[in-house]
Design brief:
The protein is of the alpha/beta class and 313 residues long. The protein has a domain of 177 residues: 3-Layer(aba) Sandwich (Rossmann fold), CATH 3.40.50. Helix content is 45%, strand content 12%. The protein is built from 13 helices and 9 strands. The strands form 2 sheets. Strands 3-2-1-4-5-6-8 form a 7-stranded parallel beta sheet, sandwiched between helices. It has a two-stranded parallel sheet with strand order 7-9. Helix 3 runs parallel beside helix 4. The radius of gyration is 19 Å and the shape is globular.
């Protein structure tokens, strides 16, 4: 295990998004210089207040990524969910830019836990494709992937349901056990691996405990000091809600993973249920508990309580 050179900045992709900004904050806490890649600096006001170097670029524009990668030793790469063709182009562009600029290693943040064997579900196919492209490039890399994010509870529609109606209604069966993780924990894991020079391994980031739906809302309720009920949202209804917020057709793409979990419960358990176990480079990693996470985000929920007209999504 070798500590990395801190004299050069690390490049954080999708830095203005929820996951990317969490990586930026984690990297700053670890004392790294950060180059934050954003599509439009005018819309990255939260980042401009931090001690980071903002650079504009687009994953579809190879030249912009080469410019952003110049003088960078390491990168934390995440590819936005989209069509498989788009995701392939964007991954190719990012890896080509890294190789062309002499980037030493990448931490690859994938969107979900990996199914043990190949399957047709589009998001798992996309994860495997991204991993294959990076692997074939010869660029040293480590993978970080979550079970499922507690941060889904922070979406405006979910916050409104929890605070105003006392209900959390994800498209997941109440009986499904999940070792929920968080965006901040995954970011912290990615930066820890980078800091320790870990350039191999597939690191599954999970929570401290495996809980069903009722146990989840009990812990969230304890953190927020309120009673919350669990209700499974029908997948067709979930698809329609996603389409309203993100555009027609997006709902089917997002829901396909949940349909897979519903029809393959053994695979869902293998991917989601087991709590975090110590692993190479993360032997001392301490996940955040569910109740503690809720307490940390209490102000977000209280803001919803003070503005009950929050969006339905």
């Amino acid at each position: 295990m070798s500590m990395i050179d801190r004299s050069k900045p690390i490049l954080v992709y999708l830095a203005a998004g929820v996951q990317g900004s969490a990586v930026v904050h984690a990297a700053l806490r670890h004392g790294f210089k950060v180059r934050a890649l954003v599509r439009d600096r005018r819309r990255a006001t939260a980042l401009s207040a931090l001690d980071v170097e903002l650079v504009e670029g687009d994953l579809r524009d190879a030249a912009s990524l080469r410019a952003a990668s110049a003088g960078v030793a390491h990168a934390v790469l995440q590819i936005p969910i989209g069509s498989q063709a788009d995701m392939r182009i964007q991954t190719d562009n990012a890896i080509s830019a890294s190789l062309g600029s002499g980037v030493n290693s990448v931490v690859l943040k994938l969107a979900s836990a990996s199914r043990p064997a190949p399957c047709e579900e589009p998001s798992f196919v996309a994860n495997a494709m991204i991993e294959e492209i990076v692997c074939a490039s010869g660029l040293p890399f480590a993978i970080v992937r979550p079970t499922m994010y507690l941060d889904n509870l922070l979406k405006p529609s979910a916050r409104t349901d929890i605070v105003i109606h006392g209900v959390f209604a994800p498209p997941i069966a109440e009986a499904q056990r999940i070792a929920w993780t968080s965006v901040d924990d995954c970011a912290r894991a990615a930066v820890t691996l980078l800091e320790r020079g870990i350039t191999s391994g597939d690191h599954r980031i999970a929570g401290l405990e495996s809980v069903d739906g009722n146990e989840l809302v009990t812990r969230i309720g304890a953190g927020l000091d309120r009673r919350i009920a669990y209700r499974q949202q029908p997948l067709d209804e979930f698809e329609r809600d996603v389409d309203v917020v993100m555009g027609p057709g997006t709902g089917r793409r997002v829901a396909s993973k949940f349909r897979f979990f519903a029809s393959h419960p053994e695979d869902a358990d293998a991917m989601l249920a087991a709590p975090f176990t110590p692993q190479g480079g993360l032997e001392d990693f301490q996940p955040t508990g569910i109740e503690e996470w809720a307490r940390q985000h209490r102000t977000h929920f209280l803001a919803t309580e003070q503005a009950p007209s929050g969006g339905q999504g």
